[in-house]
Structure formats: structure tokens, C-alpha cells
Design a protein that fits this description.
By secondary structure, the protein is an all-alpha fold. It has five helices and no strands. Helix 4 packs antiparallel against helix 5. The radius of gyration is 29 Å and the shape is elongated.
């Protein structure tokens, strides 16, 4: 017949085994999640590096900068202010897919972080 001490030891051993298994499972999940986050960050950094390298051979950044500067400059010329106001009023009526497409074009040119700022400012 088993003594009370043996029963308690057996139960404690089972509890310890369960807890060790549970801890190993939690640790494995946390490590997997950390790896996913690390991989995503590396992918983003790689994409931005490639985009930066490719932008050195393109005029699109300069083109977009000039294009975005036109309304800015025209706002300071009294005879053209109404054209800028009317233009932006019309752009505001464009379908959302078109507005988002413009945001994506700018994001592709200037980088992902810039697009996040533009999208947050729009809300």
C-alpha cells in the first residue's frame, strides 16, 4: 500500500511535469512570435533599401516633389488661390480607390513610413 508521502510525491511530480510542459509550450510560442516580428521587420528594411537604391536611377521622386509643390506655390499667388481650392475640392470628390492609389504611388516613391503618416493624417 502506498503511503501518503508517496501519493503526494507522485501528484507533485505530475504537477511539475505538467508545468514544465506548459512553460515549454508558452516559450516556444513566444519565440515563434518573436521570429515572425523579426522577419517582418527585416523584410520591410530590405524592401526600403531596394527602393532607395532604385530611386537613384529614377526621376519619379523629383517629378512627384514638383507636382506636390505646384499647389503649395500657387497658394501664395492671389490670382491662382481659387484654382488650388477648386482643384482640391474636386479631388475630395474622387472615389476612395483613386485617393488610396495616389497614396500608394507616393508611398512607393517616398517610402512606407511616409505613407503611414499620410494615411493617419487622412483619418
Amino acid at each position: 500500500m502506498l503511503g501518503l508521502g508517496s501519493i503526494v510525491s507522485s501528484i507533485a511530480g505530475l504537477g511539475q511535469s505538467y508545468l514544465e510542459g506548459r512553460n515549454a509550450e508558452v516559450k516556444a510560442k513566444a519565440e515563434a512570435k518573436a521570429e515572425v516580428i523579426k522577419t517582418a521587420a527585416k523584410s520591410t528594411a530590405d524592401w526600403e533599401r531596394v527602393m532607395a537604391q532604385n530611386s537613384g536611377q529614377s526621376w519619379k521622386d523629383e517629378w512627384l516633389t514638383l507636382l506636390f509643390s505646384i499647389p503649395l506655390i500657387l497658394c501664395f499667388i492671389p490670382d491662382y488661390r481659387q484654382y488650388v481650392t477648386d482643384g482640391f475640392a474636386v479631388l475630395a470628390t474622387m472615389p476612395e480607390w483613386y485617393q488610396y492609389t495616389l497614396s500608394v504611388i507616393v508611398a512607393a516613391s517616398f517610402g512606407v513610413r511616409s505613407a503611414v503618416g499620410i494615411m493617419k493624417a487622412k483619418k
